[in-house]
Amino acid sequence: MFLRMMPGLLLWCLMASGPAFGQGVDTLVVSLAEAERRALESSPLLSEARAELKVAEAEEIQARHARYLPEASIRNVWGPAPRQRADFNEYGVLNSPDTALGISDLRWFTQIDVELFQPLYGFGKIDSRIQAAEHGKEASRAGLEKTEADVLFTVRQLYWGVVLTRELEGVVGDVLGQVEEAEATLQEQYDEGNATQNDLFQFRIFQYEINRRVRELEARRAETRAGLQAAMGVAPDVPVEVETGVLEPVEVELDSLESYLRMARENRSDVRQLRRGIAARQSLLTAAEKDRWPTLFLAGGFYMNRAPSRYDPRNPFWRNPTNYTRGAVLLGLDWDVNFLHHRNEARVQRFEAARLEALVDPLLAQVEQQVREAYYVAHRARADMEEGREALQASENWLRATLQTYDIGIGEIGDVIDAFQANVQMEVEHLQNIAEFNTAMAELSARVGRDLVRRGS
User: How far apart are CA 57 and CA 67, in angstroms?
Assistant: First the structure.
């Protein structure tokens, strides 16, 4: 875990030197909730998931509207048509002075065709496709929630990392003050002949280790703050500070492992996403099987043609391709009798559903393994935090006794350095244990699909 920066005896040296991170007028101070909100608003990881959800929502609306909104089309055309005037001779025979060959006889006509097609009943086809669209939307929503959980876990890791580095910055003042005091005391004792040159050499090595570890923490501090800035979408030139003043363990009661396993099976977004995907495929399978049945529909149309240059006899026994107005309303059946095609489509949907169902058990096994790992990490972190508090008290008592012994001239500088190392190591260990426990609970929350931390008001 990144919070435990360097293992070994000199973990106590993980502290920052110099003044604490300054808070200027332009410093952005964020609480954990604010950092999470900013991350959810600005994270580029969520853009694709949000776009996918928008597509799924539009597809659901489209499927629902297919039940009530008719298929409608309007076509309007303009074109040339030969002029056809009427001229009755003295015997009542109809003639025309126009021909169909001359370009000069061409005139314009216009035609408008309006057609409507409204499915009324499809023996379950429409309902099944609406259900498939609904399940697809919920699967996309679960995918978005999964990405949001990953983003929240990342920003919580970074947030507690920043809090930890700032707490270590608070430790450094006391530590460096004690180091300077010890150096002055050692130099005084050397001048008086009560300390050897080897003691000075040993102390110089001790100071080098301090400065080296300080430089490591400075780099880690800059890296963690930059990560938090990037996660929240804050510009790199905007200083960021966390609102949490003291690194305290989050309020949470660890439950049993079985309860968390059950919680994960019910709440994990990736599990819900897979199950919704299976439900969508099953609905498409039902729709493909229902395609063998006809669709009852209502159709209507309105057709109008106007060609002013052509004679309209207004005779129902005379077929006239121009100058007409017609309308119709029909009730009928639309039946695709390609049964082999429908059977093949249903087979594809059945195998797709079976393929997704085969992923359920491996996914649940992976989820349970992740929950177990996160649970044991959180359980160990809590034990380390509780025992580390007692060890810190013991190290303080040890250092106090060693300094008193050294001050009266009967102690060794090596004993003081050892006690000092142990005390500062335990201070850092204690802070790291708290930060690791908070991060472990954030990870366990992500693994079970529910926020387990009780937030203060």
Answer: 16
Backbone angles phi, psi at 45, to 5 degrees: -65, -25
How many CB atoms sit inside 10 A of residue 5's CB?
20
Helix/strand/coil percentages in the chain, nearest 5? 60, 15, 25
Contacts of 415 (CB under 8 A, 6+ apart): 402, 405, 406
Cβ atoms 433, 379 nearer than 8 A: no
In a domain, 310, yes or no: no
Number of structural domains, the chain? 1
Parent domain of 23: 9-67+124-292+339-448
Residue 105 falls within a domain, yes or no? Answer: no
In the 8-state DSSP scheme, what is residue 251?
B
CA 202, 207, 210, 216 torsion-angle sign: negative
Q: What is the pTM of this model?
A: 0.72
pLDDT in tens, 33-73: 899 999 998 888 899 999 999 999 999 999 998 888 888 99
User: Checking DSSP bridges between strand 87-88 and strand 71-82, what pairing results, if any?
Assistant: unpaired
**CATH classification at residue 23:** 1.20.1600.10
Q: How far is CA 37 from the centre of its chain?
A: 12
